[in-house]
């Protein structure tokens, strides 16, 4: 296996690791909760915006240009999830044009910057004193993107089955998913606030 393949698989496995990467999975679910399968173009733009955001800080942090305290990042990540999920509750899922859509892009891009700092802690730990980090960084980022696409496809498949095939009300779907994600994020925030205070 080439170096590129190794880091690609590490990136993919990191975001698909539901035991350790569930916070990033929750954020992607929160981003997608407003949409159904026919909105796939908007979902693609959102996921791309998130990728652009976390790619920037993943690169800057891995190169030691940006350095943020790990405990703070571990608190900010669930905060981004909470804000995104709660804002879903006040949006009309049948009218996602204009300002509401622009705000979703902002969340994906800006909060992606925060998540990139979280990814970088993991990547730096496995890079060690690697001399050339361009290939590992690129491969890891592409692996993360591939993992995100898998999460989106799985989530939207469940959405298609329930909303499109079994006629679950779209608003109910949005409310249940967003409320559950917000609740989990609140618990994570509380847990990480305890560590920050320590």
From TrEMBL:
The chain crosses the membrane at residues 20-36, 43-66, 72-91, 103-123, 143-163, 175-196. Signal peptide: none annotated. The keyword RNA-binding does not apply. InterPro entries: Put_HupE_UreJ. Keywords: Membrane, Transmembrane, Transmembrane helix. This is HupE/UreJ family protein. It comes from Chryseolinea lacunae.
């Amino acid at each position: 296996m080439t170096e590129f393949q190794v880091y690609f698989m590490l990136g993919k496995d990191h975001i698909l690791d539901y035991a350790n990467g569930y916070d990033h999975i929750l954020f992607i679910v929160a981003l997608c909760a407003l949409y159904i399968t026919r909105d796939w173009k908007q979902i693609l733009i959102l996921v791309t915006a998130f990728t652009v955001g976390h790619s920037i800080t993943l690169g800057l942090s891995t190169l030691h240009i940006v350095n943020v305290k790990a405990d703070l990042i571990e608190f900010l990540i669930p905060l981004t999830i909470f804000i995104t999920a709660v804002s879903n509750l006040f949006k009309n899922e049948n009218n996602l044009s204009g300002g509401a859509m622009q705000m979703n892009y902002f969340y994906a891009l800006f909060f992606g910057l925060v998540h990139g700092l979280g990814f970088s802690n993991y990547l730096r730990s496995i890079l060690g004193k690697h001399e050339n980090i361009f290939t590992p960084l690129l491969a890891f980022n592409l692996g993360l993107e591939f993992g995100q696409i898998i999460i989106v496809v799985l989530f939207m498949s469940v959405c298609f089955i329930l909303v499109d095939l079994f006629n679950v009300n779209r608003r109910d779907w949005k409310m249940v998913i967003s409320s559950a994600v917000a609740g989990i994020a609140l618990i994570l925030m509380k847990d990480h606030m305890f560590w920050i205070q320590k």
